[in-house]
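pls ignore typos typing on phone
magnesium ion + seq
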Amino acid sequence: MPNDPMPPAIVLSRLSARFADQKRNVLALKDISLSIPAGSFVSVIGPSGAGKSTLMRVILGLMRFESGTIVRNFSRPAMVFQNYALFPWLTALDNVAFGLRMHGVSRQERARIALEKLREVGLESLARHYPAALSGGQRQRVGLARALAISPDLLIMDEPFSNLDTITSEALKADLLKIWRSYGMTVLMVNHLIPDAVELSDRVILMGAHPGHVAKTIEIGLPRPRDPRSPQFFRQVDSLTDLIRTIS
Ligand code: ADP
Ligand code: MG
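k done
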């Protein structure tokens, strides 16, 4: 049907997941139900141990779940990690090109795409540098370029700003919004800063711990581009902060 809205990129229904071995048995996610609209920007916030990273791994199929269902309407997922996870023995360019090997892309084409992606994140001039010669913000940009190399339809980011200073993360946020728009992809981001979640997201999923669960889902209706200095913005941050207090 031509006028059908796009199906959600991800739907979880009463999903539970557990870490179990001889020593430990931890119910990390309990009865998680959520829906991520295709093309939306969704943030997941919550205290440490709430299962945010576990949720990302389950969505990507990197971890088994115990019960419930998951519907995945995406075909090219990519992930950006908090600690960059770059290969220290490869240049920025080769780090970005690396993931394309698995996709059967020729060497020449890999280098071309990698350079293009480094340009998109503003790092073209540092293509031949090794990670050790890059700042934290630059490494995170290489990680982002590497994720973008496969032209993802879903980008998952686990606390991408947590190792960055404020000025560096402000610049990266602005670029991330541009990239999100130009790729038309779904972005799912674990975050721990409420103002960042309000600035970036269409929707915020608030998780609680012991066991990890969805406490509340909040729609952020502020028009874009958003001004973090506007009264409406402050009000939204305040109400989200109040909500978190009532939950934890
Ligand atoms: P968050 O990312 O929100 O801080 P995690 O998803 O990392 O939370 O962890 C959720 C729960 O699962 C925590 O209780 C944590 O101790 C537990 N957990 C995470 N990873 C493992 C693991 N590899 N083995 C056992 N327990 C784990
Ligand atoms: Mg985590």
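The chain has a mean pLDDT of 94. Strands lie at 10-20, 25-36, 41-45, 67-72, 77-80, 154-158, 186-190, 203-208, 213-219. more later
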